[in-house]
Amino acid sequence: MVQSTPNLTKKSPKLTPKRTTSNPLISPVPFTAGELSPASESSCSAYESYLRLPELYQLWSSVEFPGWENESIIRPALQALEITFRFISLVLNDNRPYLNRREWNRRLESLARDQVELISVLCEDDETRGAAPIVDLSSSFGEVVPQTGSSAEVWKLADNEHTITVVCRSSESSLLPRLATWQKSEEISSRIYYAIESAMRRCAYTLGLGEPNLDGKPNLNYDAVCRPCELHALKKGALDHIQNPENQILFTIHQIFESWVFAAKKLIVRVGERISKEEFTKATDDCWILERIWKLLEQIESLHLLMDPDDFLQLKTQLKMKTTSDSETFCFRSKGLIEITKLSKDLRHKVPEILEVEVDPMGGPVIQESAMELYREKRRFEKIHLLQAFQGVESGVKGFFFRYKQLLMIMMGSLEAKANGSESSDLLSQIFLEPTYYPSLDGAKTFIGDFWEHDQMVGNGNGSDQRRNRTAKH
């Protein structure tokens, strides 16, 4: 086997920020030899208790449909979408006259649409559809199969000489059908329904939330997968007694956030499994979904910008979230976020396996040379696609933390966001300013770029010589 250069970046210098135990939600995060670590156990536990993550984790991780490969990813994704429906209701019921309802409505509708789009991509190539809880509401003869525990609308569409029976099934437990009957939320609900109908056109089944289902597809048993009743039983946090209108908004934002973090973790695990099986095309699809999840996490965090500054800063004090020189950036309290950051970064270790070379302990450039050969010959284009997706994930990770730093400065002011110094800022900056995770791929592209530049210069030079020769002959 050929030997090659380790596809690893140099380790960052060790940073040892002081720890503090006085803050229930925040604690310092040390970078040890370039490794990112979560906050102290007590701080993480307080954060998890605030969001009721242990109970949510049980819902996310339950396995009820053996053989359905997508269950562990689609369930938390659907639950994040369902919490978004609750979020819409929460905002529309907020009586504060200074609330920016128009922008809240736009942002939440956009968030719902983007989540539906991601869910549809996950369902699109679901090869284990037979193991999923699918409800086919009509037989091949157009007879409607009666269903219990749901409401359904039935109508007939004329298709030349044939009449097609179409069934629109609505979940009994989801909040979306209820929002559709409320005057305040009727408009936003209808647009979400059309988004579901459009996104699920590529899939073999639809979600069963009450969307038109004009293609008459089978419906996913949404209530069995999402379990909305159990999910909404967790709508009040451990600190719900705090009298602040932004408390429930902060709580809901982070429940949606953590649901997608869990889905991302399961997706990264599947990427590794598919690479081991040499299913590179499927692994590529998963990586691009992962890149989009990172962008979605950024979108979810940006909802903080719509929170009232005075109410939020008061809530920050009530939750004892004070940022000092002895503490760290807020996002590090999420163990799940730290884990998917590491797992996303560790995809770089799959590069030698994909290129079918071994790491050279002597520092030889064989990974780079192998990548150059792959890029130029284009014979295994599915591997090229996968390596590009890897770098797309890297961009998603770094983009999230870069924008998170800007968010902190906007929400709390630059002085406090920097923890009255540079320590906290450096911890975040070290993530998005870190050198590329893929130096061998970077080097390969640099050399290919130089080759084409040189080739172009040589070509232009030869052309000039030929023109000069013709001029001299005349």
TrEMBL record:
InterPro entries: Hs1pro-1_C, HSPRO1/HSPRO2, HSPRO1_N, Trp/Indoleamine_2_3_dOase-like. Residues 6-197 form the Nematode resistance protein-like HSPRO1 N-terminal domain. Residues 200-454 form the Hs1pro-1 C-terminal domain. Residues 1-27 are annotated as: Disordered. Residues 1-10 have a biased composition (Polar residues). GO terms for molecular function: heme binding; metal ion binding. Pfam families: Hs1pro-1_C (PF07014), Hs1pro-1_N (PF07231). GO terms for biological process: defense response; L-tryptophan catabolic process to kynurenine. This is Nematode resistance protein-like HSPRO2. It comes from Chenopodium quinoa (Quinoa). The lineage of its organism: Eukaryota, Viridiplantae, Streptophyta, Embryophyta, Tracheophyta.
